[in-house]
Amino acid sequence: xxxxxxxxxxxxxxxxxxxxxQQFQADLLLKLEMKSNPETLCLVxxxxxxxxxxxxxxxxxxxxxxxxxDEALANVMRHAYEGKAGLPIVVTFRRLYGxxxxxxxxxxxxxxxDRGVALNPAELQGRALEDIKPGGLGLxxxxxxxxxxxxxxxxxxxxxxxxxxxxxxxxxxxSEGE
Length: 178
What we know:
The protein has helices at about 40-55, 60-80, 140-145, and strands at about 10, 25-35, 90-100, 100-115, 150-155, 155-165. The protein is of the alpha+beta class. The chain has a single domain (about 10-125, about 135-165), classed as Heat Shock Protein 90, CATH 3.30.565.10. Strands 1-2-3-4-6-5 form a 6-stranded antiparallel beta sheet.
């Protein structure tokens, strides 16, 4: 593992397609230090799409990951920073590996950090899906698209951690033991 790589063990939480008690290691892919400016979102989208492609995510999964991160960044700019430009946001992308298969990608972890208005994770509720009007569905989308979505406040920073795991390939019937 490279000198700049950060490794940590993580247990998989309950999500879609869970692998209970699977241990993962995280290796730093990229860290972006950006300013709150909507014009930079296209750069983040392109970078993340390419990173997810490199990790072997299919196009539909890549779009879901990119939309989730894009929505989260837009929310930081709109809500945490109340529309003010030029304020710091750090986005960290980590490649997840299965502890038993360190050569094989298991997924991607995205961590967003900002110093905006403190959020209370208990109050983060998307609006009711029945309430048909534009906007307000980003949180629903993130939770639906990503396997893990965690909000917290730590050391004066809002932190949003999102994880998407690669689908576990299904074994073809009758191929076991051949």
